Amino acid sequence: MSRLVRGxxxxxxxxxxxxxxxxxxLCLGMVCLLVLAAIAAVLLGETPLALGQYAQAIAHPGSPxxxxxxxxxxxxxxxxxxxxxxxxxxxxxxxxxxxxxxADPGVLGVSAVSGLGASLAIAGGLAAVPGAIELAALLGxxxxxxxxxxxxxxLREPEALILLGVAIxxxxxxxxxxxxxxxxxxxxxxxxxxWLMGSVENRDWTDSLRALVPMAIGAALCLKAGQGLRMLTLxxxxxxxxxLPMSRLRVYAVAGAALLTGAxxxxxxxxGFVGLAAPHMVxxxxxxxxxxILWPSALAGALLLVLADLAARVAPTDQELKLGVVxxxxxxxxxxxxxxxxxxxxxx
Length: 348
What we know:
- The chain is mainly alpha-helical.
- It has one domain: ABC transporter involved in vitamin B12 uptake, BtuC, CATH 1.10.3470.10.
- It contains 15 helices and no strands.
- It has helices at 2-10, 16-43, 51-59, 64-98, 110-123, 132-152, 158-182, 186-196, 205-224, 226-232, 236-241, 246-268, 274-282, 294-314, 323-347.
- Helix 3 (51-59) crosses helix 4.
- Mean pLDDT is 83; it is low at 1-7.
């Protein structure tokens, strides 16, 4: 069975080395683009700096220009890259697990319940406590993810998981609307709304390190499930006959995607379309291999969100655009195009 799978995506059965080299070249190219985007995002911003100030910032990081570059912009870029990578990897995992190119990290309802946790913390007056909102968002994601994982261990049909996610998402959205309705003050409502729109503004290095731990665990689970995702493309019966522990690999995929999504929401609020679009940026380059697409999708998601945050900062508006608004403006047309292409294939 493994020879058949390798032959399907890599040509001849003995071309595993060529596939590995192609994947390595793709990832190195994505890393180079990400580094260039990160450098541009650190150098550019709302406050323009002269050439001499850039030199001063590099020579003396504690100087005022150095504070702008290394204390304000650089941590923000790092958080955007981490959140984008988490969403891209979670999106690729869910699309492979559900065998649906329109699936995204929010399909399990984890984003909605994570946002609910953060909303409850803000409305409860915990915004002044460092890390309280992020912890509440992550706890909400763990609750939703735990429920989905428990049910996913007993389900094989992807349609059942999608319906379950829709139900959880609708319930989480309804409770979040209830928080808006019962919020103690207009200020709390404004804070909840601003957080739900998504942003990496005012993030520091501690925030990035805090988000890195759950993201690393989630990424490890998704990568461990990669072989199972590849086998599922051959059908449920072929996957069951492969000898792989498919039930366990499904749980790894769901748990990893839930943890990545929850950590992303905890770090930057609810940001849509990145997890949907990132896998499609690289899908053709890996010949639709759901295992090989995982790392490139993470890098594509990081690149997308770093560029989106840069666009939010340099846009000529009186108030800085929220990151979720920018991704929605660009992501909604992309989603419509994907849905149109998918509908054509379904009719065919």
